[in-house]
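chain below, 484 aa
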Amino acid sequence: MSRPFASVRARATLAATLVVAVALVAAGTAVLLSLRSNLLGEAGTQAERSAREVATGLAFAKPYDDLPLDVDDRRVQVVDEEGRLVAASEDLERISGTGVDAVKPQPAATARDGGDDDDDDAADDDDHGESLEPGEIGARTTVSDGSATIDGDTEDYRFAAVPVETEDRGRLTVYAGAPLSAEHGAVNTALTVMLIGFPVLLAVVAWVTWLVTRRALRPVEGIRREMAAITASEDLARRVPVPDTHDEVARLASTTNETLTALESSVERQRRFVADASHELRSPIASLRTQLEVAAAHPELLDLGGAVEDTVRLQRLAADLLLLARLDAGERPADARVDLAALAREAAEGRRGVRVRAEEDVTVAGSRGQLERVLANLLDNAQRHARSAVEVSVRRDEGPHGAGGGGQTAVVAVADDGEGVPAADRERIFERFVRLDAARSRDDGGAGLGLAIARDVALRHGGTLTVRDTPAGGALFELRLPGA
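prediction:
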């Protein structure tokens, strides 16, 4: 297993684990805070309920001894308006959080002096913020947190303070507490479960992610191995395996195979091109060498015209091969404005039987030299196959050109009155080094590159080159280029 894929798998596993860990921590924190808030609220409700129960007994003038001060786990203090503890749970040893630290009741007056009623009421109003009638319990409850010690054990409590106005004992405040041990126990239990469960869950997530990632990357590793084997063997006929998953990896494999197919085709064309070029070069080179060897031995037998003809043929073939190589390399044509009408007249000048009909100002953007070569090749081909006449027409066409765009299109048509091109061969003749059998008997030394060069130049200029029959039965080559 290669290191890059293992690294991808490790990174994916780590990322998934981190994301889940962050989510679990956030969710766990929210759960703990919500649980603690709910339990504290429930403890506050219980404390308030206990305080109001005691306050109800005070409102009905029950003696302190008859109040429910020691029911269940309640911790209760009753404080008068002067801050003295008048009643408390019996087993209370220490308390905090109520504002009154005393745990043993202190004697208090059983009745208030009438002359101080107004002042006391005013003080009560200031202390508690609400005015109560005798026998009335305050509607507002004050909640606080503290602790209480019973039998040497100290626990946290939530206290609720409820005021009550009595007829004989004045304003009293009842402090009742509910223990928070249940809240602490529940929160601690939940925290313990999370501390144990979260690592286990993260381990499961990491393990599952590791397995799933390995399974997902297994086809990629197969593609890599096959590509390495293809590179080592240089066998472009091989293809990478395509998984039956219909996902991105399957599309990657399909695209890789398409690339290999295109590469194999390109290499095959290149090999065929080299072989054909070697074959075409062999004949004139062999002929020229023979003539030179004969001339060296017998100067009087030198065929100077034939040697020049072979040399010119070699020069033309080398120029054609160089142009094809530049076109294959993707060389962009120049961006000059070229008048096709003038170019057609120049190409036809001096050629017997060639007639030009051209509209004025038909211009395109491109390489003048390459476009001149296209017209020359088309005229050479037409003259080679024509019986008596060749006609060149240059016009503008408002329809879309061959590159798929819209707007004005320049059209150059070269027609001859020969036998035409069979429908089955109308694409073959644009292949390199292809000459039809009928053409070979009339061939004057061409290598079968003229039409291939013409089409490649047309494509590089964003146009097309096609062939069809003329109404008279000859061949009509039509070059369409986007207008400048």
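The chain has nine helices and 13 strands. The longest helix spans residues 3-59.
thats it, cya
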